[in-house]
DNA sequence: CGCACCTATACCCTGCCGGTATGGAGTCCC
DNA sequence: GGGACTCCATACCGGCAGGGTATAGGTGCG
């Protein structure tokens, strides 16, 4: 099976529409139809049920969509890793906006002095993209927060655990509380951090929206302490007693190189130092 | 990256020779050279160092060989699983000659009566091929023996543990012993069960060779009891006290379907019954 | 120095891949 | 119910990728 055919099939299977898929692929619709027909012929299996009104997946089509996506991810990873191996060694670290709890800068400073240091590129990606960037080889290490749904294939190191705070407008009924518990928040509207994530509120596409929407009373948000403190003076942040979040360093479990190991170790050291400092300050 | 290019590269990287690789791929050498050049150009990385006398891998080439093989295996698995999903559900069970300890027949009989039964195809493969057949989706479940070098990605269930016996010609110095230990066999010549396996003796390509070679005094072999007993009356089998082997059912850890689970469970039941019977007979 | 071996280049040809135009089936809506 | 719309399939055509043969060029060996 040619990988291009598989890319085509995945596009059609996702769009459930030949014309839109062709559009996305940057080719015309007829060649796409033929490519899928050829693929079906070669596999000896019907992948799609088409009527003139809708396209649906057969059992075999579902299998190929799932397995094929994995295979294509692997192929992309092989390509990226190969490209990287040909260049100067460097690390790509990926985080999301405000997702590093302020640790990244000291980590980079300390790592630069490490004997196994290499050049580091920092990538700030959209919400929920980090794991796929790790898996396809674009990034070497990510800063993630627990809880995470699917960490398969990734190795992790816990960096630090933070309180979580609910962020509210000044006028909110809970704004005067010294602390709250999760049950107190049962009636609140929380944003959905990505298209797929559960929740009742609006989908967040830009982090700047969050403070805005909270101020307007549209939503509330529960955020790690390091993030909540930076939203601005017009919002009240109240600790949620029974919630904690942990910042993780994560990387592909198969990767074994000195620079990566050194980076993770450095990150853990910086985080440990920070935790100790916080404990002293808090006390 | 097109999968065909990757197949070509892997062939060259393994053969370390364009002409032989082209031969194996069934194409001429010049198109192969061009394909590799194109791949290198597209990746922007040199993969192979060629002199007119030898081809060697660059760092990037090694990465692509390793990662690419994985990706191609996944691609093949996606293809096979898709093909299978389009047909009647069935299980492919793979074992090697005499590798089932006589369990397969009763397992199949019992499985046929199971509520979740499906058609079963039995594949008897060459030595050392089982794991790759599982990984590329050709087979659903394999009967393997411990010790095994690399079971990553596979789930296993222990079926039964057997004694191992050393098989000797009648005239052998140890032929009269009631039992031996591994240290007693230090001077013996053992066959190599595949091209890669360690050992001093000849490479076995056909199981029929083994009895033959033992009879001629060329080698000795340590085999599971169930196999050793069937080599014929002209050979003496002496128990090796300090060696045991376990028969495993193994399958891809990602697979989750009722028929597969039912098969493994049935296999375990049959094996348990056999073990009990043996214990009674032996006592 | 010639021979054997191996890869790269030159050149040709076939067939695949992609494009445009159009057909035909089903759905929506007035 | 008919026209318009949507959507996939078919027909046909052109360009180029990919494969073949012949051969050049470099290197180790006797």
Q: Would you identify the regions of chain A where 5 or more consecutive residues have pLDDT less than 50? A: none
Overall residue-averaged pLDDT value of chain A: 87
* Biggest interface pair, counts: A-B, 31 and 31 residues
Anisotropy-based shape of chain A: flat
Q: Largest beta sheet of chain A: what is the strand line-up?
A: 4-3-5-8-6-7
The percent range for helix content of chain A is: 40-55%
Return the domain count of chain A: 3
Instruction: State the end-to-end CA separation of chain A.
Output: 63 Å
What value does the Rg of chain A take, in angstroms?
23 Å
Q: Tell me the strand percentage band of chain A.
A: 15-25%
CATH architecture of the largest domain in chain A: 3-Layer(aba) Sandwich
CATH class annotation of the largest domain in chain A = Alpha Beta
Task: Return the structural class of chain A.
Answer: alpha/beta
Instruction: Report the major sheet of chain A.
Output: 6 strands, mixed
How does this model look, in words?
The structure is a homodimer of 283-residue chains. Chain A starts with a helix and ends with a helix. In chain A, strands 4-3-5-8-6-7 form a six-stranded mixed sheet. In chain A, strands 1-2 form a two-stranded antiparallel sheet. In chain A, helix 1 crosses helix 3. Chain A has three domains: 82 residues, Arc Repressor Mutant, subunit A; 110 residues, Periplasmic binding protein-like II (D-Maltodextrin-Binding Protein, domain 2, 3-Layer(aba) Sandwich); 83 residues, Periplasmic binding protein-like II (D-Maltodextrin-Binding Protein, domain 2). With 283 residues, the first copy, chain A, is α/β, with parallel strands linked by helices. Chain A has nine helices and eight strands. The radius of gyration of chain A is 23 Å and the shape is flat. The longest helix of chain A is centred in the first third of the chain and has 28 residues. Helix content of chain A is 41%, strand content 22%. The structure holds a DNA duplex (30 and 30 nucleotides).
């Amino acid at each position: 099976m040619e990988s291009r055919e598989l890319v085509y099939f995945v596009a059609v299977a996702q769009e459930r529409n030949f014309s839109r898929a062709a559009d996305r692929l940057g080719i015309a619709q007829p060649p796409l139809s033929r490519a899928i027909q050829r693929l079906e012929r070669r596999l000896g299996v019907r992948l799609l049920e088409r009527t003139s009104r809708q396209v649906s997946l057969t059992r075999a089509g579902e299998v190929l969509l799932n397995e094929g996506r994995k295979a294509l991810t692997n192929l992309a990873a092989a390509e990226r890793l190969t490209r990287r191996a040909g260049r100067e060694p460097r690390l790509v670290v990926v985080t999301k906006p405000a997702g590093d709890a302020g640790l990244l800068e000291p980590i980079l400073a300390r790592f630069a002095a490490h004997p196994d240091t290499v050049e580091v590129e920092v990538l700030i990606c959209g919400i929920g993209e980090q794991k796929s960037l790790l898996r396809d080889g674009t990034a070497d290490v990510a800063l993630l927060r627990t809880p995470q749904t699917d960490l398969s294939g990734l190795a992790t190191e816990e960096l630090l655990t933070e309180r979580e705070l609910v962020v509210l407008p000044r006028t909110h009924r809970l704004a005067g509380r010294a602390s709250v518990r999760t049950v107190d928040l049962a009636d609140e509207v929380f944003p959905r951090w990505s298209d797929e994530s559960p929740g009742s509120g609006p989908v967040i596409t830009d982090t700047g929206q969050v403070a805005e929407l909270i101020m307007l009373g549209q939503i509330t948000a529960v955020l790690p302490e390091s993030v909540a403190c930076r939203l601005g003076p017009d919002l009240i942040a109240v600790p949620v007693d029974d919630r904690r979040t942990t910042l993780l360093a994560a990387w592909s479990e198969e990767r074994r190189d000195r620079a990566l190991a050194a980076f993770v170790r450095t990150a853990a050291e910086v985080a440990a130092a920070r935790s100790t400092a916080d404990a002293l300050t808090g006390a």
